[in-house]
Amino acid sequence: MASSLRIPLLLFLILGLPTFYSASDGDVAEWLSWNVRKYRGRAALQAQAVVDWKLRRAEAKRVVKRVSQDGTGDYTSISAALDSIPLFNIGRVVLSIGPGIYREKIQVPVSLPFVTFLGDPANPPTITGNDTASVLGRGGKPLKTFQSATVAISARYFIAANIKFENTAPHEVGFVGGQAVALRISGTKAAFYNCSFIGAQDTLYDHKGLHYFNNCFIQGSVDFIFGYGRSLYENCYLNSVAKKVASLTAQKRTNASLESGFSFKNSTVSGSGLVYLGRAWGDYSRVVFSYSFMDNIVLPQGWSDWGDQRRDSRVFYGEYKCSGPGANTTGRVPWARTLTDEEAEPFLGTYFVDGDTWIVSP
Ligand SMILES: *[C@@H]1O[C@H](CO)[C@@H](O)[C@H](O)[C@H]1NC(C)=O
Ligand SMILES: *[C@@H]1O[C@H](CO)[C@@H](O)[C@H](O)[C@H]1NC(C)=O
Ligand SMILES: *[C@@H]1O[C@H](CO)[C@@H](O)[C@H](O)[C@H]1NC(C)=O
Ligand SMILES: *[C@@H]1O[C@H](CO)[C@@H](O)[C@H](O)[C@H]1NC(C)=O
Ligand SMILES: *[C@@H]1O[C@H](CO)[C@@H](O)[C@H](O)[C@H]1NC(C)=O
Question: What is the pTM of this model?
Fold first, then answer.
């Protein structure tokens, strides 16, 4: 392993690339060209990338536990199966989850890395709940958005495939405390394949870390993909159930040197209401849509600074080769960007989330 690492390290030193950016406040143009240079340098190393050793060890020690509501598996609930995993396990534990509706509030803590939820693509299980931010938890205090999640993942190296994550709390416009998260992902290096995320306000809390979503269906009304993760969404379907004006995303990059942002590639935006592609939760919010189809629900302005004009020069909202009636950039806010080939490139592959070292098939 030592020798396979030596070459990239050497290349890296020769190229002398900065690994982290700290520019003057809000100089987006400068950051953009730095980002392209960084991409080029790193791309040269990509061919050599290897899955990190902890993950390789975990995949080599893979075990499968069956969860089935009819009693034919090892466990009848997902929580019971999780409870059986030793703390700080070092091997991949696949929970093969049979069909059915699982009404469970699930947390995968930091102490349980390398867990996979695997459903059957022909009959995916649903994990459902209906907690909201204003529901009272233990001690009589409101749960808040963070604890409203039906499923909350804090562990590293989580994978889900063919699972439906749901929060059925209804969204009433104007009701305070109605945030109702279906899934919160706070652990880094997490991947989701063929999953559905169904909710209304704040469905998918893409809280923090590196994340990859492939072929997922994400439904909600307001800010339904939000947080400060660095995430690539490929081949996904964003279904708005908004009744009025809303925003699909609320990305919370708060600081010019944080590498956080959402990149949507080859995805579809459709549904009801009138939507912004994103609104700036953080001052340096960053979202890119590429090769995506946008239906006529997208507002011509495209993006919102959430009423704070200081953000106009700080956010990074880009579009690249999108199609459909909602992709017409004529009416866009002047601070939205149509990216050049060169500018778009760093957002278009698993490179964006350093995926070559941690994305493995489920
Ligand atoms: C995703 O769904 C497709 C179609 O059902 C299936 O062929 C594929 O194996 C699924 N992917 C995973 C990772 O299970
Ligand atoms: C949540 O679901 C439970 C169980 O189905 C139900 O009793 C409760 O009324 C629901 N709460 C809300 C706010 O919809
Ligand atoms: C784009 O996404 C669609 C829908 O998920 C998928 O069928 C298609 O293969 C994807 N195309 C590419 C080039 O990845
Ligand atoms: C930005 O975030 C980084 C990482 O958390 C931190 O080290 C840095 O001090 C922050 N900079 C500002 C201007 O807040
Ligand atoms: C984009 O929108 C503008 C203004 O509504 C319109 O004039 C133009 O024809 C549209 N372009 C396309 C390609 O539809």
Answer: 0.90
